[in-house]
């Protein structure tokens, strides 16, 4: 194989500048410390990243396995409980709190510790096999919030980007570590065929006017099922509100758990420097 | 003065528990490290706080004055510039980037270093006097972004919660440190009487049907001018879009700069552990 030609469109003269100068194109992209990379990740400035920076694997490992991750989680849950205790409930039992699953109710650290803490790209096959084991431990801070909310009379709703084919394993895992008595367990559909697709096709076939036919054909596209997390989760939260529930709180490790109306009255961002879900 | 009676509504028996136990009301509210407090602040979990925890004054001071604050800012701006350089512009000059002022274009560290880095409650009088000096230095990272955007052909729009009575001082400060050639400088109105109030009252007086009269009377209420930052800033961004601008980016140190549709195509959260604006 011939050596690839280097042509990134950058004038050669730039190559003579020091790599870590304070100005210029290269300087601007100088490495920031892993701690500042994490700041940009946790504040939703860095998006759509596939793996953590290779140089930060040790940093992220120390963060996750040492006390830092637990301490950050504790600060978030302390505030969530303090907020929940301040609420005046209606007494009609319609108040719910939305919980994400991965890195929220349960911790997948046993998996990620063996996969570079996010330094390896996401692998559907190996992570799927791990999820099917239903062996993930609870995130202790989230468990503390979960139990306190139940004692207060606020019902937990589990809302996860895991697909329906993981329903049994997910329910088993949650029950095994003590998450019981939730109001609903909502997962993404398992295939790329969206719910209502059959009735959509039926409507398409029964229409006669040309414009409506074209429009409904577009609406029926099975690939619409590849819905992003924000769209899926905010849609499910809207359904909860339409059903009369009041979402008083919403906790997750990804901004895609917490953005998109209706977000819930308050949102609580747990730490997760290992992966990004958009 | 008599000593105040201690009655915080907590049963006395709780006083016998260890202050830092892992369970129970006191344990749950045990102090988290200042670094974890900052995590909860920067991810919009902690809200409506008036001052930093007294025990964190030294921590926040070290964060702001040492390299950490600058390093976190650098990570955010590196990503913003990388994103801006990836954009395909229309060539019609309608792309704008929204900048907040305090702790975004300019740094008020000279003021906050003398006021406990947020350990003292916000003081309109002393901060107002400082702002009128128009002496705040530029945040160097934001200046780098500002200049790069102008070179790319993206127009800066300055959008601040400072009131109109600070327009002259703010413009003078921005110009003095090198922020020139912006498209607009948008500030909050100076009084509690909203813009359009006079015409609102005129419409109210000229209406005869009862329903409309009641409705317009409500709409004319001067206290509506006490608009929160999210409402004010998203309203101004909507006006920009209505005028044909495309907000490709939005940078600020407060979540109230970045939340509320239309947010802009991408948001960039600069660090600020010193104060909260809701």
TrEMBL record, chains A, B:
Signal peptide: none annotated. The keyword Methyltransferase does not apply. It holds the Pfam family Acid_phosphat_B. Keywords: Glycoprotein, Signal. The keyword Signal applies. Gene3D superfamilies: HAD superfamily/HAD-like. It comes from the Eukaryota. InterPro entries: Acid_phosphat_B-like, APS1/VSP, HAD-like_sf, HAD_sf. Belongs to the APS1/VSP family. This is Acid phosphatase 1. It comes from Dichanthelium oligosanthes.
């Amino acid at each position: 194989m011939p050596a690839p030609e280097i042509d990134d469109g950058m004038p050669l003269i730039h190559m003579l500048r020091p790599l870590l100068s304070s100005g210029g194109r290269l300087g601007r992209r100088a490495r920031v410390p892993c701690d500042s990379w994490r700041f940009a990740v946790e504040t939703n400035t860095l998006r759509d990243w596939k793996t953590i920076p290779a140089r930060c694997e040790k940093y992220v490992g120390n963060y996750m396995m040492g006390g830092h991750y637990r301490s950050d989680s504790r600060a978030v849950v302390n505030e969530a409980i303090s907020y929940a205790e301040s609420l005046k409930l209606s007494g009609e039992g319609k108040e719910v709190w939305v919980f994400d699953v991965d890195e929220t109710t349960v911790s997948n650290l046993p998996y990620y510790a063996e996969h570079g803490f996010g330094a390896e790209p996401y692998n559907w096959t190996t992570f799927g096999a791990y999820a099917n084991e239903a062996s993930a431990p609870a995130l202790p801070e989230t468990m503390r919030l979960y139990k306190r909310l139940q004692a207060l009379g606020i019902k937990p709703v589990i809302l996860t980007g895991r697909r329906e084919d993981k329903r049994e394993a997910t329910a088993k895992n949650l029950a095994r570590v003590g998450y019981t008595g939730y109001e609903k367990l909502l997962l993404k559909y398992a295939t790329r065929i969206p719910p209502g697709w059959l009735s959509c096709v039926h409507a398409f076939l029964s229409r006669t006017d040309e414009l409506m036919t074209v429009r409904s054909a577009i609406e029926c596209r099975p690939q619409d099922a590849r819905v992003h997390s924000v769209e899926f989760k905010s849609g499910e939260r809207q359904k909860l509100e339409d059903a009369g529930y009041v979402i008083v709180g919403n906790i997750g490790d990804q901004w895609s758990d917490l953005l998109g109306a209706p977000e819930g009255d308050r949102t609580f961002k747990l730490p997760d420097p290992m992966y990004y879900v958009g």
